[in-house]
Prior knowledge:
By secondary structure, the first copy, chain A, is of the alpha/beta class. Chain A has twelve helices and ten strands. The first copy, chain A, is 40% helix and 16% strand.
Amino acid sequence: MNTLRAASHHPSRVTLVEVGPRDGLQNEKQTVPTATKVELVHRLQAAGLREIEVTSFVSPKWVPQMADNAAVMAAVQRRPGVRYSVLTPNLKGWEAAQASQPDEIVVFGAASEAFSQKNINCSIAESIERFAPVVAAARAAGVKVRGAISCAVGCPYEGAVAPARVEEVARRMAAIGVQHVGVADTIGVGTPRQVQAALEAALRHYPLHEVSGHFHDTYGMAVANVLASLELGIATFDTSVSGLGGCPYARGATGNVATEDVVYLLHGLGIETGVDLDALIDAGLFIREALGQTSGSRAARALQARCPT
Amino acid sequence: MNTLRAASHHPSRVTLVEVGPRDGLQNEKQTVPTATKVELVHRLQAAGLREIEVTSFVSPKWVPQMADNAAVMAAVQRRPGVRYSVLTPNLKGWEAAQASQPDEIVVFGAASEAFSQKNINCSIAESIERFAPVVAAARAAGVKVRGAISCAVGCPYEGAVAPARVEEVARRMAAIGVQHVGVADTIGVGTPRQVQAALEAALRHYPLHEVSGHFHDTYGMAVANVLASLELGIATFDTSVSGLGGCPYARGATGNVATEDVVYLLHGLGIETGVDLDALIDAGLFIREALGQTSGSRAARALQARCPT
């Protein structure tokens, strides 16, 4: 019993997909200047992040913050070895995104029927079918497709979401050619066993290296959920610098798990990330100062305070 | 690989030692009225907490906030089945505490030599020897003695603390008759494997049910560290309602892990605590309102926001 058994399952290296510029900023009310967004991406890649979700090709009527999507993509000075992804909710989005030459696109489906109906006005099955031509077009263009399974643990309308619903979405995504799925606890209600069950459901249709975790820290569970995911061998996580972002369905909610906190955890576990934590904290400071906000990362706040450790 | 193996180690029931009234309030600058402290204890026990660290019998010159220790203890309407503990840093403290009839006393020693020297002006070995008569007197009076091992993972002066140092303190505490040890990550720098190693060190001298975890959330790791502790079978944790408390050695630091967050985690894992989360959140609201502060518990903030889940 008293052995470090759990640790032995951990991967030796983890890939972090930095979603701050897209998922983090999309609900931000003040308009963030294009130059600020570009500078953020530059700082993130300089800190060692190798996958960055840059923007969203969605109607500016829905998400005005992302109206400068093409301008941001054009201004980013790309580094070899870094993958730049964009969200494309439909064929029109994909067509608009194509000129920006993303390395990867992201499509999404909810594991909750009520959430799907309320937010995109169609069933889960219909929503995924609608992505089929987007996926086909992207793959024909040599662009990788990731699928985000939102509300994979809980839904603001339905409550708990059964793992079987996650499996169903993963199955449908696999069927239309989505190459990777992210299991997203969109409202941050999940605890470790629930999150493991949702990941296991996705793993029935995808290999370990093509399943990632996306956790919000609304209830303070995100870092523990990352730990629980590592124990299953999951080695890819979406994270957001300084915890940028929030869930519009949970007032008072904190946002995505902070990249800094996850890096602190992983390095403490002896897991490589390729990320320079100090440079990452500076990137987080940069964007939070631009927004006039304090960091949502506890590790960043503690390290900024420069306590004597 | 893809099994819920880790979960199988978890205890089915966990005891939470609520330290908010003592460890949480001790560094609070504004004087908290005695009646407020008593009301807090009453609300905590009404919420189902069965172990409460009520106050400290320490010189009011050192900790003015605890100057009303005897008055608080006298005013608490005790409930059967609830254990009330107090901190007694020396024989004088024990003598003062005795009239208040605590069920348990807490003594402490650091696992860091530098911390011991700077804070209590003596070596670790000397500090523990000084407790020997306190322990003997308490046990002769039928009062249980818990020992807190502070800086068990990291120290603000020395940096990382080796598990061997924790084992040494646990050994010395066992030798003088301390019945239970709490492994405390006082400055919140620990990550799960480090915390497990520190707990393992204590487990060489104490059985599982007499070792507890005490984690600060300074770097956002506390809930993950609780999870990692559960995997070793640890079933007792110190927690602080609404995350009351902070570490004077880490500016900008958050305090003890919030009881609400740990209860949310444990209930999500199917582990019993006997605590009513709603009543607990109300207790946290009560004390934070009295202090003019917002809660440090993410679960409490999310649940107060009453999102539709």
